[in-house]
Design a protein that fits this description.
The protein is mainly beta. The chain contains one helix and six strands. Helices cover 15% and strands 39% of the residues.
Length: 94
Amino acid sequence: MKRLAALVLLAIGLNGCGGYYILTAPDQLAVEAEPVNVVVRLQRNDMFVMAFGVKKAAISFRAEDLPERASYTDDLGYAGAAVPAPAEPGLYKI
């Protein structure tokens, strides 16, 4: 019985509470003043090293002061939108 209790406590300790979110957004290249298809993935880490996709979460996209686009994540946590690129070449945060 003590071994079982120790094993249960060890399993709980290894899993931890987790509960933080991971937003993966790769770099994007775009032609000036043309829309670029931006895809991101939203995950929630609930169990130690396992991160599951967050379903139906609202994600908004915007480059600088250009119009904002939005979409919802799918069953795997992916969301995408066609975001207008700025007219001037440069490095911009989306």
